[in-house]
Queue: 2 jobs
Job 1
Amino acid sequence: MTTGNADEDDRRPGGRRPGQSGTKDAILAAAREQFAAKGYAGATFRGIAAQAGVDPALVRHFFGTKDQLFAATLHLPPEVLHRLQQAFECAPEDMGERFARTYLGLWEDPATGAALMAIMRTALTNDQGADLLRDFLQGRLVEQVASSLGADRPRLRALLAATQLVGAVMARYVVRIEPMASLAIDDVVALLAPNLQHYLTGDLPDHAHRP
Amino acid sequence: MTTGNADEDDRRPGGRRPGQSGTKDAILAAAREQFAAKGYAGATFRGIAAQAGVDPALVRHFFGTKDQLFAATLHLPPEVLHRLQQAFECAPEDMGERFARTYLGLWEDPATGAALMAIMRTALTNDQGADLLRDFLQGRLVEQVASSLGADRPRLRALLAATQLVGAVMARYVVRIEPMASLAIDDVVALLAPNLQHYLTGDLPDHAHRP
């Protein structure tokens, strides 16, 4: 498809010789298009590199894993995934509180909150954004959380807890509705944690009604 | 796109000559669809008028600004508020399940689901939409639910339950993430109801950390 390192590549569209920052931008632009066109699962380092006119090794050098590259296209700071993963490295009975505190903390932090807001808005305003977010959540995030849970139906549990947190941040940070908007973080965590804990490790009803 | 005043327009799809009230309804229906499909920012007078089969000037004549048109579309189908109100006319211990079943039912029903989707997308994509939704929720919906609760802090309880339901419909209807998207309604209700019930009538922690 294309060859060579971008720093040596005069055949790049536009003929510009990008510096390192330009190369990164070109990779991100290509990654966004490939993720949009093929979904999270379908997009490949090779395809993204080809479209950006660089070697796949350079994509890996700049962005690490496919997760990290995808996170970068969403402008998701790398510590988001890391902190969420760490939240579940604890005793099962503490997971509800830890998940709440970590996720709300990511929204409180300006460095990560803006990125999370952008992602939520994108997912809600266009189907492509929703598709990408779904693939990513199904493929990675829920799986990652679920792998920390010993309980039955771990993916359903992780997702139920996530829905509560997403609804809570919408009320608090997006729509800013009282009294959720003004409560101290510790109070919000204390209010949500028991329900999150129930989803993560409590008794869930059987799917008695499943057709 | 389309021309002429609707009252003179025989080329309207279907060839019907609507009266003023029918024209307004057609514009509102078109506006709801356009806001839902494109968000507040993306929807235009021209596109709404085209879909309604009227001149953009007529849309402006009836509804004024885009904000005012949006506010008009926010007037949900009257049965939404009515059905939510009815959900709380029951024994306190049944409220969690009734609230879940009613709210999810409104999203399942095409007649009301499109309006709810439009509101959610708009609230998330522009601050004005968020303001409108906040005013509506604070002024009407939460107050109405809270008035049915005998417990302490009824507005906080109603809002917490609402955040869980909003997060759940985002996962199920907007992002369509599995396994939430494919579960039978009865299963989703059974999964959410205990937590909703806890918010509505259970013991909530004191605000020990309030500054």
Job 2
Amino acid sequence: MALLGCGVVGSQVIRLMHEQAGDLAARIGAPLELAGVAVRRLGRKRDVEIAPELFTTDAEALVTRDDIDIVVEVIGGIEPARSLIVAALAGGKSVVTANKALLAEDGASLYEAARRGNGDLYFEASVAGAIPLLRPLRESLAGDHVKRVLGIVNGTTNYILDKMDTTGGSFTDALEEAQTLGYAEADPTADIEGFDAAAKAAILAGLAYHSRVTAAEVHREGITEITATDVASAKDMGYVIKLLAICARSDDGRSFGVRVHPAMIPRSHPLAGVREAYNAVFVEAESAGQLMFYGKGAGGAPTASAVLGDLVAVARNRLAGTRGPDESTYADLAVHPMGETVTRCHVALDVADKPGVLARVAELFAKHDVSIQTVRQEGHGDDAQLVIVTHRATDAALSATMEGLRELDIVRAVASLMRVEGDD
Amino acid sequence: MALLGCGVVGSQVIRLMHEQAGDLAARIGAPLELAGVAVRRLGRKRDVEIAPELFTTDAEALVTRDDIDIVVEVIGGIEPARSLIVAALAGGKSVVTANKALLAEDGASLYEAARRGNGDLYFEASVAGAIPLLRPLRESLAGDHVKRVLGIVNGTTNYILDKMDTTGGSFTDALEEAQTLGYAEADPTADIEGFDAAAKAAILAGLAYHSRVTAAEVHREGITEITATDVASAKDMGYVIKLLAICARSDDGRSFGVRVHPAMIPRSHPLAGVREAYNAVFVEAESAGQLMFYGKGAGGAPTASAVLGDLVAVARNRLAGTRGPDESTYADLAVHPMGETVTRCHVALDVADKPGVLARVAELFAKHDVSIQTVRQEGHGDDAQLVIVTHRATDAALSATMEGLRELDIVRAVASLMRVEGDD
């Protein structure tokens, strides 16, 4: 096999291949041999010992070498990863990758190349790191219907939100701490703006609904606007704010929504207890009921564990002259727009403290067909606030209602606005 | 395919096969056809509609019919299930079973028959019902080393212990409620004495350590002796009592222990939040770190979901002319006796209230090389109690210490004794 990339994950893959050579050979039925490692620059110091002659900067040549039958890609990003993977698959090799961005942008090309080359494409490490999640979705639940997936799939944002919840501090402080501890990168955009989670949501939705989904189809909101007040207000109500990746089938089963946004979930929900940089994915299936998968979503060794699990599987498949499950897109369901997504809202309004305010606000909700579950009036005078939680309504109706509220003269400001999930 | 048994699980399998025929065919690549259902008595009312001509009482004839290539066994128990499965496998068919008792007693014969017949043996539903657990252990973690498995794998006992914890009531009351609600059977022995959990522990340990384990090798203690006082005392200390199935590798990696017994776990442990009849399994692997799998451990539809997932897998394998992963026992590690298991203990002693008591008790612990982590003296006079939590020690040393304590004249009684897990 050949390895593309020798960073945090790649060097752990090599270390584990060395340390567990005997076990891996026994589990596969033949030894795994590392035949080459493609890197950008030679001569760099690595975290792991590798015979220098294995290194090459010519990844293109490596992935088409005749003596290589499995390629592990841990470079990340779109190019050159895509071209290399496609070239490897076209040459009849099997590929193990952790590349969520590529899979969510152009998984179709990779699957197509795998089919033509009659090789395997495995990618357990691309979503939720070490947590066995894609194999259960693709295989264990192959006889069931997934209704909904609610996932905490980005460790950085979960760390930040957990800190804000525990300390009461601001987003900026929590982000800085995450950066100091290495949980967030110097440029944290991909994490805090939800791009990373959106790629994972696209992969999960595709597997759950046997349809093709790209990251561009995922409604995405990040966590940068969340204030200490939002967090405190959620806490007061027995909720906690999490960045969720949500895939949900429509009631008629003909389409589904895919979205990433912060949401309030009840503290009693299994996902509420997911602390620090841990990941967890909650799956609701028609027959299986509620399932949850919990573990480390990132890091060298955990990701390498998932890569090695796939490596054992594709190596076994090659020995048996077979392939793992192919892309399953037979259902070909449409992704519906965010406006059609059914959700609930928590909204805090700074209002004028005079009679008739509640009536006018309630009237506006009714006009947009959004029914109110609870309303609480807090404070007096300039501090008067209405805290409203709605029943389920389409996101379009909820947005129109918020638009209308902002225009009402008696509403001084929408102090906080957050979707509510996980308590229906 | 043929179905053996048409009870709670079997009728759900048939219902789902009907309802999802199109999806299953698309996922497999060919339609699934139900060719026969073996039952004990014909003419009985079933929960699902089936053409009457499909029923037969001649299971032996059914499993060897030429037109059948997959057999699903949901009869349970050792015989006739074993003979039927072995006959089916010997005839080259693939088998999906939920039969934990049989797998834990004689899995070796079944695997052997599968190998000879070149068919598949899948059994995801046998442990933790709908929770995808065996596939992750067998496949996703194939590149990792499992250190420890801590599982709540019996819903009945978890329901009872959860009730005792919530209401403060007795074991008997909680058991009665579980029976009324259908969570416990009229004869609850298999559940409350830990037999069911022990079979599952044997299956989990075998997969985790790539070795052969039978239920007879599992150290087993049930929950019938647990009192409301034990539960309250655990609660006071921030712990909750759960019946755990524990598989743990020895420090030198050369053997492992498998046991089922009630244990105190910290309320902050992810397993502590597993309520009612839910199941969850916590896995610690060297590279992946801590993982948890949570969901419904029993019930017709959840179990049927797991059976159907396996059914799709074995049907795909047959179409591709291949087999799934074989039994993996290459490591061939020994199961060490309970005495060598390293654990911790919480013990409450009713003691004489006089000077020097603590010194004599501490001396006894020291004599057996068991070091004390915390000790708390409570009450006075006839109510005087010492509450001790030990550091890690072998179970043999802990047992010898308890034996010694019972013989000390200053100890009036060992009021409560419980192993402590999950906080190291």
